[in-house]
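[stage:ingest] chain + small molecule (calcium ion)
[stage:ingest] validated
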Amino acid sequence: MAAVTSPTSVLIVEDDRKMLRVYSTSLEAEGYLVVEASSGQRAIEEVRTRTPDVILLDLGLPDMDGLALVPTMRANSAAPIIVVSAREQDADKVKALDQGANDYLTKPFSIPELLARIRVALRNRAQVGSTPRTIISFGDYRLDLSGRRLLREDEHVLLSATEFKLLSTLARHPDEVVTTNALLKEAWGAAHQGKKGYVRVYMHALRQKIEADPTRPRYLVNEAGLGYRLNTTE
Ligand code: CA
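[stage:predict] done
[stage:export] tokens:
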């Protein structure tokens, strides 16, 4: 008998009924099992009882601040959290990411964009628990995390210790946004919170070494006001 695998479930937390229908219909068409919650209270119940594989969380909820839900969800679930917000909630996005959310989408976004983010979140989650990937490829590059080296078509690219830490922090979350705070903490330690200029300077140096055109980065993508993303899909 073939093994029965349960479908991947997505919890959608969204109070706008129209949007909720659009997301649900699109995800169901892709074979996902959709669980809907239109309030924060309901979302917490669903996280505890339905154990979703991915959580899509709107930050603007009627009964509570979606941001306040992130730590509770993190405490109750290992599922990746993708926060959804309006552009004017940029500061909340940073807080949500720093509190354990994995990625974000800014309204309005397209359905293909939503589906792509869910696939990335699921792919990265699949590596947690199994043997984590130690080689991350992007373009002509291979970053060897355990060997602590970066290769470009088998040529060694020389990186400083800090550059390597920054790049490997991004590479551990490929195609997900990593906040500037998280990068600072990884590369310089918690004592340097707030010194965002460091990250900018080192990211500039990394781009000079890696990007064909550092002014139009293909791999080290800046997410304005939030942080950076290592693009591995092009
Ligand atoms: Ca809303």
